[in-house]
């Protein structure tokens, strides 16, 4: 992948995300197939959610992340002050050991641009690959909860921003 860098997500990136399709069990993350896709595009570029595109050295769009409330899932306890991060990698790159580099680029950007004391991530428990990556990167499990609507169990993980990002 080369070096990775982040830029604010643009409409073309958001439209591409809407075409992504993950295999089971990760198809949970598939964007909805809707006729009103432009509404989702507008959400992705809403400055309140701080969505960023992650690009490689050739400016190839390989994933995205958000900084802030978009990384939270209803039902979790988010009372601790922390920077929430949500993310997604293009489906054709997942499962090939690229997560470390991808996550490190996001965490470095977070520390430089947001200067958080604590970084927090919320992940569905069936996503063993993500849980392993986050724990390997120094995140610790803080809370487990179930989303009442979807009946999915999630784990909230946190990391002190100064710890070897």
Structure characteristics:
single chain, 165 residues, alpha+beta, Aminopeptidase, seven-stranded mixed β-sheet, 7 strands, globular
Q: Could you characterize the architecture of this molecule?
A:
With 165 residues, the protein is of the alpha+beta class. The chain has a single domain (5-160), classed as Aminopeptidase. The chain is 24% helix and 28% strand. The protein contains four helices and seven strands, in the order βααβββαβαββ. A seven-stranded mixed β-sheet has the order 1-2-3-4-5-7-6, covered by helices on one side. β4 (83-89), α3 and β5 form a beta-alpha-beta unit.
What share of the residues lie within helices? 10-25%
Tell me, rounded to a whole number, the average pLDDT: 90
**Class by alpha and beta content:** alpha+beta
Fourth-level CATH superfamily: Gcn5-related N-acetyltransferase (GNAT)
Task: Please tell me what the overall shape is.
Answer: globular
Strand line-up across the major sheet: 1-2-3-4-5-7-6
Low-confidence segments: none
Q: Which CATH-level-2 architecture?
A: 3-Layer(aba) Sandwich
